[in-house]
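User: I'm writing a tutorial on reading structure tokens. Could you give me a worked example: one chain, its sequence, then its tokens, then a sentence or two explaining what the tokens reveal?
Assistant: Sure. Here is the example chain.
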Amino acid sequence: MKEFLERFKRKHKHHRCNDLVGFDRSTTEGHDKAAAAGVFKKLCPGYVKDAANILEELLEE
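And here are its predicted structure tokens:
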């Protein structure tokens, strides 16, 4: 887990969702603003893809 987080942070500087998308999703207002900005469709798929690639690399090592 530690290696995964280190690699992910190396690529994206953050690993927590709120930091990645730039909105506080723990509030209705923050979630709504993030949705209106389209970050869930624009950013999140790339983060998920990168996470899967990192996990695949770790499994191959």
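What the tokens reveal: The chain is about 75% helix and 0% strand. The chain has one domain: 2-60.
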